[in-house]
Description:
The complex is a heterodimer of chains A (285) and B (790).
Chain A: H1 2-15, E1 17-21, E2 32-39, E3 43-51, E4 68-73, E5 78-85, E6 88-95, E7 102-109, E8 112-119, E9 128-134, E10 144-150, E11 161-168, E12 171-172, E13 179-182, H2 200-205, E14 222-230, H3 232-245, E15 268-282
Chain B: H1 2-18, E1 20-29, E2 40-43, E3 48-50, E4 56-62, E5 64-71, E6 78-84, E7 88-89, E8 92-94, H2 108-117, E9 122-125, H3 127-132, E10 135-136, E11 139-140, H4 142-146, E12 152-154, E13 162-164, E14 172-176, E15 179-180, E16 185-186, E17 191-192, E18 199-205, E19 219-225, E20 234-240, E21 243-253, E22 257-266, H5 268-271, E23 283-297, E24 302-317, E25 321-339, E26 342-362, E27 365-385, E28 390-410, H6 413-418, E29 422-423, E30 427-441, E31 446-466, E32 481-504, E33 509-520, E34 522-524, E35 537-539, E36 547-562, E37 566-585, E38 601-617, E39 622-637, E40 646-647, E41 654-663, E42 668-677, E43 681-682, E44 685-691, E45 694-699, E46 705-706, E47 710-720, E48 730-738, E49 748-753, E50 770-776, E51 781-789
Amino acid sequence: MKKLILIISSAFLFIACERIVEVEIPNADPKLVIESQITTVNDLWRVRLTLSQPYFDQDSANGLSSAVVTISGTDGSFVSLFHQDTGMFVSADSQRCMVGETYTLTVVYNGVTYVAAEQTPDANPIDTIASYYLPDNNGFITKGYYVFIQGVEASPEPGDYYLFKAYRNDTLKDDFGPLLDDDQFGSVSYLNQNFDIFNIVQELALGKTPRPFPFVVEPTDTIRVEQYAVNQKYYQFLVDLNAQQSRSGSPFDSPPANLNNNISNGALGYFSVVNKEEAWIIVEK
Amino acid sequence: MRINILAVTVFLSLSVFAQKFTLSGRVKDAANGETLIGASILVKGGGGAVTNEYGFYSITLEAGLYEITYKYLGYGNIVEKVNLNKDITRNIELGVTSNEIGVAVVSAKALEKRVENKQISVVKMETSKIKEIPVIFGEVDILKTITLLPGIQSAGEGNSGFNVRGGSQDQNLILLDEATVYNASHLLGFFSVFNGDAVKDLEVYKGGIPAKYGGRLSSIVDIKMRDGNAKRYSAVGGIGTISSRLTLEGPIVKDKSSFMIAGRRSYADVFLPFAPDEAIQNSKLYFYDLNLKANYDLSDKDRLYVSGYFGRDVLGLSELFAINWGNATATLRWNHLVNDKMFVNTSLVYSNFNYGVDIKFAENASFGLDQYIKDVDLKSDWTNYISQKSKLNFGAQAIYHRFNPGLFAANNDESRIIFNDVQIEKRKALESGWYVDHEYKQSSRFNFRYGIRLSTFSNISGSEYTYFKDANYKPIDSLTVTDSFSGMYNTYAGLEPRASISYNLTNSLAIKGSYNRTFQYIQQASNTASAFPTDQWFSVNQNIKPQRADQVALGLFKNFEVKKIGSLETSAEVYYKWMNNQIDYRNAAVIAFNENLDGELLTGNGMAYGAEFYVAKTEGKSSGFISYTWAKTLREIQGINFNNPYVANFDRRHNLSLVFTQKFTKRLLATASFVYSSGQPLTTPVSKYYYEGSWISEYGERNNYRVVGYHRADLGVTLKNKEKPGKRLKSNWNFSVYNIYNRANPYAIYFRTIVDTDLDRNPGAVSGNTAAFQTTLFRIIPAITWNFEF
């Protein structure tokens, strides 16, 4: 249904004549922006600090260098991050988060302490990744090769939230916006739990299709899929972010709203702690 | 014995002289038999009456000889001598005064009459006035015209409705021959759904709403259609570059019964090339409407009417996507004279407003979303003409509402295989109203009207949701509790007192005041200043309580005689309205196709106040008016704007209209109009920040910014063709231009990042920068129409 609204909104745009105008709008004081995501995969931990700026100030965001940035975990870990360049703070060594532990980010900037915390969600690795050929145009989907995955939700109870990223030959495919899915009303469809992946041809013949990633692929493409299990708050943040980016001036836009984050003292951005799993495939005929 | 007989005789004769009798009947147009609404019946020596909406009048006087003058604006007077020694029925036919455009001499007495008759906060337009209103696109547009008047603001371009005294668009009750019209505009506000050829009379109440009307907070627009020529067949119509229309009417049985069929259709093809965007050429944008009417005099005391209206709009982008909406209404009415002093009208109405979206991606991906609101309405309105001074109105109404908040279904067999139907639970409700109202003319100086209405509302058999909301007032889905009810539940009842007073300080100066309380039980949820025709209508329920408004208004009305200009009518009115249980969407509300829409709504209070000024010159070769309104409307709702009051989405501080008509010769007439209104409020970003590769806006207070003002001038010229003596065909040509200086008035402004596809239309723009985008709907639009009357 959300996709429906996106399409209607964009169609509406065509009816009217649209152009850029000059407007004078009020400017708020700059606020600290914290951008950081830490995952269960071993990697350097990064936190980017910038300042918000007036809406029509077209310079790129100015990175901050003088701040004290640390991340601590309930597993007893304590990591300091050091400024590298353009506001990017990096840990000295690679780290990873542990499932069930809560990690707290602390940033001291200009005498103010900003705190954000999240718990690492549980997730199962992606069981299988496969491709199949859809012979006929089928509603939204044109014919061709598609890739889908199969996995199991972290918990049979509702409360699992996922973000998927799919790359075709190392290019992120996000034409339809972020691929978000949860199990509030039924199972996570991208995980295709009810599809018999070992008998693809028979399933297709019965008229059942999996939920693939929404872009056509070709044989010899390398398709990489990242599964992020995220917290509900971050999931809502991503949903609201997408709604904001999809505004088109049509009557279907909801009243504008600010994103809710998990950082204290009015800082913007988000500190997300996610469980990341990966799988890849080279498409065959 | 003799003395006794004498005493008895004297006594009897005395009582004969003290006896009162009633003079009643109908006043009609001599040429076509149309009943005349609001015609005056003046009794020489003092007193009089006015015809009601069915052309009926009733005056009770002491027995005696009277000279009665029947008159109506635009028609010649008829004077009758009546020997009132019993109840008399006198039906009168008035003839239209000649079409000579001369300078009419208006006597002082007539001036006074107009001041006296003007009710506070009401706009009344009789037939002759309707024909005179400015013509844009070759035809008379009722809604466009009333939005030129003080207190009534057009919601802006592309908007299908209007705002009256700070109320939202769904707070106007629009009646067409007693049937409720839910969407009053075609083509996103460009044309009204009322075919000017078919309209006989119009009354708009901005305040001082009589107890007879209820169900909406802000205004009542009561439109009566013509009955149809009862004397001979005739045709009226026009063929134009934007739309065409045809009205056929005639007698079924001469002087007893007539019919009328009026149809209109527009063609977008001619209209769209004026829009600069190429993609628009593939769009569909058209409307059609059909008015049907028939009436029959069953007897002297009974008249039956059948009327119907069917209209539809289609807005589409190639085959991919289309929005359509339309009203269909059918009414059966029965006028009955219980006796010479008691008139009753009973109506049975069916009304259906449905709106939907259709999408077709492929043969097997064709589906639509349909919504409707269907009403069955039974009402009976009684008027007792007690005496010349006193009139009692009473009656009752019951409406059975059915809502379909959304059915999502495949449009063809191929698609049905893939898409399952999803139906949001349909809703039913019963609304009723009971009123009694007294109009009393204490003297020629002082008259007042007071009444009370009792309204009730109940939901019928459905589910109710109890929400538990998070800190952002967003319902937590897992905690929502569903309860099912059967039968009538959630019954609300409210008393609505109404009163208005009028006092003539002098012969040409009157002061008037009014108070009314109104309740509203069904409403439309809109998220922007513009109520889109497909915004959902829903009824009150456990979570959304009935809206209530209290309004007080005070006004001064004065007529002037100014040398070299002529007579001027002026008025100044101030009002204050308190509203509660006003709804608005929470921030980031999920609006489309949401079963739990009431969970996205927050309620609070509203305040509206303002001052309206009006100066008009109605007679002579040059005529026109100036209307200015200063108005403010606020909302205060927990959860919005940090709980502070904020201006409502349709708040526009200044509104100015200037209309000028010049009759150059008998055949040539031109009208120019200019409108200005302050821009609509907007919630803008106050800063931006960078996150994961894109700019995100940080928004400030709700409606913190005001868009630039809206202004526009239109021009229309009508040239009547020479009339051939003996030939019935009369015709004229109308040339008009909308938005004559081609101003790009903003329809919506929103903020986002510039992408490559924007660069063509915006030279100098840089991809990746953030900018404000404005969409405009209508630039300059010329039109030519040929109108005829046969």
